[in-house]
Structures are given as C-alpha cells and as structure tokens.
Amino acid sequence: MSHLDHGASAEGEFPVAFALLAVTALLYLRGWFRLRSATENVTLQQHLASFLIGLSLIWVAVDSPLAALDHRLLTVHMIQHLLLMSLAAPLILLSKPVLVMVRGLPQPLVRAAGPWFKRPLVRRIGRATVNPVLCWLAATAALVGWHVPAALALGMQSHGWHVFQHASFLGAGLLFWWPVVQPWPSEQAAGWSLVLYLFLATLPCDVLSGFLVFSERIAYPVYLAGPNRSVLSVFQDQQAAGALMWTVVTIVYLVAGTIVAARLLSPRTVVVT
Questions:
Q1: Dihedral-angle region of residue 228 (phi above 0 means left; psi in -120 to 50 means alpha; beta otherwise)
Q2: What is the per-residue pLDDT for 103?
Q3: 216/99 Cα distance (integer angstroms)
Q4: Local confidence band at 79 (pLDDT 50, 70, 90 cut-offs)
Q5: Own/partner pairs for 201-205, CB < 8 Å, 24+ apart?
Q6: Do 47 and 95 form a contact (C-beta atoms < 8 A)?
Q7: Cβ-contact 223, 72 below 8 angstroms
Q8: Average pLDDT over the chain, rounded to an integer
Q9: pLDDT value of residue 144
Q10: Where are the alpha helices (H) located in the chain, listed in sequence order?
C-alpha cells in the first residue's frame, strides 16, 4: 500500500473509529447518570470530564485531520504515540471506567457475567495482567518495538498494521498507568516503588528520543518517499519528534511522580481507640 493509499484508508476508518468512541461515551454516560442519581459523590463530575477528554484525545490521535499526516511526518506519529500512551490512557483510568461502565451495561448481562469474573482462575489472570512488572514491560515493548525502522515502516504501509499499532499504543498505555492510577480496588500497595516505576519508564524514552535528536543519520528512510521530501527536512522532522517525546514524557512522568510522592508524604489521620 502506498503512502497515498494509506492516507485514504485513514480517512475511511473515521466512521468506524468515531462510532466506537461514540458508543463507548454513551455507555459511560449511561453508567455515570445512574451513579449520580444514587450518590452525591462530588468527584463524579471530574471523572466524567477526565473520560470525555481522554476519548477526545484518542480521536485526535487516530482519526482527526492531524492523524492523516502521520505517514508524512514522524513528528505527527510521535504526537499520536504520546496522546495515546501518555495522556489519553491515564485520563481514561482516572475516570474510574470499570466502576462506571459496569453501571452502564444492561444489568441482566452484568448479573450473568458476574459469577464468571469471580472464578479463581479469572481473578488470578486479572492480578497477573496488572502486575507492575508486566505493565512496565508491555509499555516498553510497545515503545521500542514500534520504533524499530522495519516495524514503523510496516505500520505506515499496511492499514491493518497501522490500526494494530494504534491499538497497541493505547492498550500498553492503559496497562502502564493501571498500577499508578489503580482505577479498581487492588491488593497492591501504592508505595515508593511507584516513583521508581515511573522513573525507570523514562529511561527507554530517553534513549529513543536522544537517538532521534542526536543521530547523524536518518532513522526512518521510509519518510524520504513522501512528496517533496529532502534529507534535510526529514532529518529536522526526526529531531523535532525526538525532542517532543523527550519533553512530554519528562513532564508527564515528573508530574505523576510528584503526585504519588505528595500522597505518600501527606499526613494520615490516625484513629486512637
């Protein structure tokens, strides 16, 4: 598939992606209104805003006019990656999506599926899936794997792989932020290990972004195939993409680490009996 074909496919997937996001938003809103009628929790409005902003960022990343330029500019590809993994994913988790969307589902379906999710094997698989080590490895694998030149070129030239690339960025982002946000009751304690977890996550990003900024060669020759592209323009685009990732990841992870540290250092109320 050529660059132009890929661009046309990206525009063609708009109705499908928009429909999926719209259905997800309606399902969340249904659950949100049910929760609001049953409780006076003031954080529900914050949850709704977080969820809708997160969905909006997903739309910007995968189906907006900006997204149609990702096969021409590495910087646009990097914006997509950052929106999905570093911004949309934590915002979605901060909205307590499991709690709210369970209320939005048809209740007969929830009651029928409830016993299945309570099975010991399913619970063990769930705990293993959100294990911090696995979550960190999944995010690192998605980051490094999709920025291997051959893999990135495959995503640009194949519509199916392009969709899978976006899905893996979002899925890996949700996994990565799960131990930090913990949107569902968890047996894992949110201790100082989370600060180390966030710090270690910056290292692969630093290595990749440093390579893109300081490399003296074109990392992704596939971008030279675009119309009116020169070696200089592609090289400048590569440097801009690396600098963007370096800046955004540093800020996002620093803010997250600061919030986690502040919560750990905040005085706790001690009940004297």
A1: left
A2: 86
A3: 49
A4: very high
A5: 201/136, 201/139, 201/140, 201/176, 201/253, 202/249, 202/250, 202/253, 204/140, 204/143, 204/144, 205/143, 205/245, 205/246, 205/249
A6: yes
A7: yes
A8: 85
A9: 94
A10: 3-12, 14-38, 44-62, 74-82, 89-94, 97-104, 107-117, 120-129, 132-146, 149-157, 159-181, 193-214, 231-265
pTM of the model: 0.86
Q: CA gyration radius for the chain?
A: 21
Of 141, 136, 248, the C-alpha closest to 201 is: 136
The single-letter DSSP state of residue 169 is H
Question: Which 3 state secondary structure label does DSSP give 43?
Answer: coil
Contact 161, 155 (CB under 8 A): yes
C-alpha closest to that of 82 among 200, 252, 258, 204 = 252
From residue 176, alpha-carbon distances to 44, 130, 153, 183 in Å are: 24, 8, 25, 12
| Residue appearing with tokens 């070129």 | 153
Query: What's the pLDDT tens digit per position in 39-61?
Result: 766 578 899 999 999 999 999 99
The single residue listed with the structure tokens 């074109």 is 218
In the 8-state DSSP scheme, what is residue 268? P
Given a cut of 90, whether residue 76 has pLDDT beyond it is: yes
Q: Which two tokens stand for residue 125?
A: 């698989």
d(CA 94, CA 171): 15
Closest CA to 245 of 199, 223, 212: 212
263 pLDDT more than 60: yes
Place of tokens 């005085």: 267
Overall residue count recorded for the chain in this entry: 273
pLDDT at 5: 45
User: How many percent of the chain have pLDDT more than 70?
Assistant: 86
Residues 104, 36: contact at Cβ < 8 Å?
A: no
